[in-house]
# Entry
Amino acid sequence: MSFFSGFGFCHEEKLFENYLDKSEYCISGFSLGAIKAVEYALGYKFRIDKLQLFSPAYFMDKSESFKRAQLHYFQKQPQEYIQTFMKNVAYPAKIDLSIYSCESDKKDLEKLLYYQWKEEDLQEIVTRGINIEVYIGAKDKIINPQKARDFFLPYGSVYFIKEGGHCLWTS
# Structure
């Protein structure tokens, strides 16, 4: 299994251990890591059976001003930005995610905010026989869970976790 970490995170796959397929033919990613997992799967020419996307970073519904404001706040006060971000990722659970915290830079945040999910990329993955599983928390404060669910639904199994947040934990 290959796992790709989210923005500001490292080694957080433990958060998803109840969902993770640990097969050597599975690729997984969380948030920004979901983007990286898709890109990896698109370029990988060997066997992949499953692609697991946990709270994929879906910001295609956000305005340019929202994205610029996020980048501005991050550049101005990166530590405060990450602290607020981590609280929003944890919501509605009351868990400390600091043990999974890693440095991220403006480039990572830009990729997270400006990534354009392409339907043809997901269709190519499905056409190659790779099963896509998407896990989304209905109480996610980072992305719009309904918009993300609607986007990914035609390409695989979408698990909409009613009480889950961005890290899918419940209160």
